[in-house]
Design goal:
Elements lengths: L2 E2 L7 E5 L5 E5 L10 H20 L4 H7 L6 H8 L9 H7 L4 H12 L1 H9 L6
Antiparallel strand pairs: 1-2, 2-3
């Protein structure tokens, strides 16, 4: 069993095993904000999905921005290109603007932005019943 030491900056910490051996650990405090190549790829896939959803509703980026009360429609472009992400506290507004069920929207966004948690919740053997 490991005793995780107090987390430091950006989730870095140390682990001490049963033999007293110290092992450095780096943990991310916000896995959905990862900056690696895989995270970028998933944000881009999320952006493509969101763009398709917007276009299916016949909305321009400007109109979607108006519906979700954004000051700048360019944020829609940033999200659709993978340079930005939908903030979790805005999921309901995006779902409503795109005429989607909010639970389905959140699950889809989680599959892109936090695939580890999504997998644990919806793809594990115990989650499948």
């Amino acid at each position: 069993m490991l005793d995780l030491g107090r987390a430091g900056h950006r989730g870095a910490g140390r682990a001490v095993d049963d033999r007293g051996q110290v092992e450095q650990r780096v943990m991310y405090s916000h896995p959905q904000q990862g900056a690696g190549a895989e995270a970028l790829k998933l944000r881009q896939e999320a952006g493509h999905w969101l763009k398709a959803a917007r276009e299916a509703q016949g909305l321009s980026q400007r109109e979607l921005a108006r519906r979700i009360h954004l000051d700048y429609y360019t944020f829609i472009s940033q999200v659709e290109s993978g340079r930005g992400r939908v903030p979790p506290d805005r999921y309901a507004a995006w779902a409503e603007a795109l005429n989607m069920d909010v639970v389905d929207f959140v699950k889809t966004m989680m599959s892109f932005y936090d695939p580890v948690t999504y997998g644990l919740l919806f793809e594990s053997k115990s989650a499948k019943g």
